[in-house]
Write a structure and sequence with these properties.
By secondary structure, the chain is an alpha/beta fold. The protein has a single domain (about 30-350), classed as Divalent-metal-dependent TIM barrel enzymes (TIM Barrel, Alpha-Beta Barrel), CATH 3.20.20. About 45% of the residues lie in helices and about 15% in strands. The protein has 14 helices and twelve strands. The strands form three sheets. It has an eight-stranded parallel β-sheet, covered by helices on one side. Strands 5-7 form a two-stranded antiparallel sheet. Strand 2, helix 4 and strand 3 (about 125-130) form a beta-alpha-beta unit. Helix 2 (about 20-25) packs across helix 10, helix 9 packs across helix 10 and helix 11 (about 355-365) runs antiparallel to helix 12 (about 370-380). It is globular.
Length: about 425
């Protein structure tokens, strides 16, 4: 392998790329691993169906049913993936002990103590998400935009509680916590009032952000969505709404883009450099939508590669918070997690090994013929050998050997649940 890597290194060098530097850089780029792939977005405070326009399909055996099982499964994924990781936790994954239970508007840092212990033991930061779905107080499909003040107040208090928990995560781990505000608020059919719910939504988020926090430690975000199951006609948190909100509250809020949350012909890769012109930081949920926001497992497809390219080209690896967001219950969940994480790692490393400066120079010189030629040649560079070296240095398998470990884990652990 060393011989192949040295050969690849020389080929990349002829294109002006230092692959040693690319590998070293990627080792310090954290990617958030989302807990909800392991139990189909159920959490530990909900025994009912998913709501809020969310749907998980499939019934593959071995789903995590307890905090211990979920952490065990995440540990397995962490062991199979190269690169730096963070945890991404939803509020519905609070862990209650000794018979205690509180509703979401009363959550406290102590209810996430075990997650902090898990993260600190593995030198990981934690990102966080208030859970505005799958709860009796989601009335008529609405939370923060509901016309009933009692409903809105419940969810505002939940959001404020999550701000405090996010501050706790950041202080305990020493890593900034990205706290993402997303709701599925919307209507199935054409609404009679589009502005009213959005004004209530705006006011509710502003009240949540009135909770004191250190913006250097807590990074609240607002995430848009174009539609969801049961809210096909209208969502309060549209792209225009959330982006405008973030722009008007830049001192305490970031925009978060999920590449499944836009119209089918829109691509987040093109939006990244546009937003970086105006925002010091932004956040991403990387997923894979097929025809709609289907949250398929991330693979090394064109848009995943383009998202990674734009982050790298814009020299924004330290300005963009990257997280995974998908949930597939039709296949082995450990494999789904691992494929998605490894695919994003491949995309980032591939972007770092692209001769971006040379290609930009050709563009700026209006040498579009040579630009096309060199872009196509760059696609044939011996990336596999660089990936193998990166995985070796991270202590994980570069090929499909990791899947044998997954099959053994399924036999020894998942099949017994």
């Amino acid at each position: 392998m060393d011989t192949r890597y040295e050969s690849a290194k020389q080929i990349y060098a002829s294109f002006g790329v230092d692959v040693d530097a690319a590998i070293a850089k990627l080792k310090n780029v954290p990617v958030s691993l989302h807990c909800w792939q392991g139990d189909d977005v159920i959490g530990f405070d909900n025994d009912g169906a998913l709501t809020g326009g969310i749907q998980t399909t499939g019934n593959y055996p071995g789903k995590a049913k307890t905090p211990e099982q979920l952490m065990q499964d995440m540990d397995k994924v962490i062991s199979l993936c190269p690169g730096k990781k963070k945890l991404n936790i939803h509020a519905c994954y609070a862990i209650f002990e000794d018979g205690e239970w509180v509703d979401r508007n009363k959550l406290e840092p102590k209810h996430f103590k075990k997650w902090v212990e898990f993260a600190k033991a593995r030198n990981m930061g934690i990102d966080f998400n208030p859970t505005f779905f799958s709860h009796p107080m989601q009335k008529d499909g609405l939370t923060l935009s509901h016309p009933d003040k009692e409903v809105r107040d419940f969810w505002i208090e939940h959001g404020k509680a999550c701000i405090r928990i996010s501050q706790y995560f950041a202080e305990e781990t020493g890593v900034p916590c990205v706290m993402n505000i997303w709701t599925g608020d919307g209507f199935k059919d054409i609404p009679a009032d589009r502005m009213g719910p959005r004004m209530r939504y705006k006011d509710s988020i502003e009240q949540i952000l009135s909770e004191p926090f250190d913006f250097n430690k807590v990074k609240p975000c607002v995430e848009s969505k174009v539609f969801g199951i049961g809210v096909e006609a209208y969502t309060a948190g549209s792209a225009e709404f959330t982006l405008s909100f973030a722009a008007m509250h830049k001192d305490k809020c970031l925009p978060l883009m999920d590449n499944g949350h836009y119209h089918p012909t829109e691509v987040v890769s093109d939006k990244i450099p546009a937003l970086l012109c105006f925002f010091p930081e932004l956040a991403l949920h990387v997923t894979r939508g097929i025809r709609w926001d289907s949250d398929h497992v991330v693979v090394l497809d064109d848009e995943t590669k383009e998202i990674a390219k734009e982050i790298v080209r814009c020299d924004a690896l330290d300005r963009v918070y990257i997280a995974l967001d998908y949930f597939d219950a039709s296949i082995n969940r450990i494999s789904a997690w691992t494929v998605g994480f490894r695919s994003l790692q491949k995309a980032l490393l591939m972007a770092l090994c692209t001769p971006n400066a040379a290609l930009a120079k050709l563009q700026n010189e209006s040498n579009f013929t040579e630009l096309m030629v060199m872009q196509e040649e760059a696609k044939m560079l011996p990336f596999e050998d660089v990936w193998a070296k990166y995985c070796e240095e991270c202590g994980v398998a570069s090929g499909t050997e990791w899947f044998e470990d997954v099959k053994k884990y399924e036999k020894d652990v998942l099949s017994l649940r």
